[in-house]
Amino acid sequence: MIPAVNITGTFQHSYSSFRRLSMAALGKARFGMWISGGLILLLAVTTDAFQDSPVLYAAPLVIVFPELIAYLSWRQQRKILTEPVHYEINETELYTRAAHSESRLAWSGLTWVKSTKHGWLLKTGVMQVVLPRPAFSPEEQATIEAFLKTAPVKVKS
């Protein structure tokens, strides 16, 4: 049985908080990009095989790609995130209300949930939603963690 839960929280996004949550959503892929881009750049600089090659110019792009995605996503969403975002969690869904949008995400529609130090990543199909931890008090965060462990959702670590 799923315990009764009714939690509300508010969070004002900034670029730095948005970036942290975006990088958490990328997970290990971000480090893979940094390492592969660094290795390509190192190989291109130390050998003559890549002189004046497009690979030499592509390697820095691989390294900065996660940062570029975070920045472009922020530019796209900053008008929506100008005011605080309100989150409401109950036994059946997550309700999110921002300045110009609102959404409902049913727990039954989730594929998995991943808990990070900055928030919870909620995966549903191809879409991923981030629920920021700072929107809730430490007691509420513990309640959310306990709820997600008993909810019919696969929790990743």
UniProtKB/TrEMBL annotation:
Keywords: Membrane, Transmembrane, Transmembrane helix. Residues 92-148 form the YcxB-like C-terminal domain. It comes from the Bacteria. The chain crosses the membrane at residues 31-50, 56-74. Pfam families: YcxB. This is YcxB-like protein. It comes from Actinoplanes derwentensis.
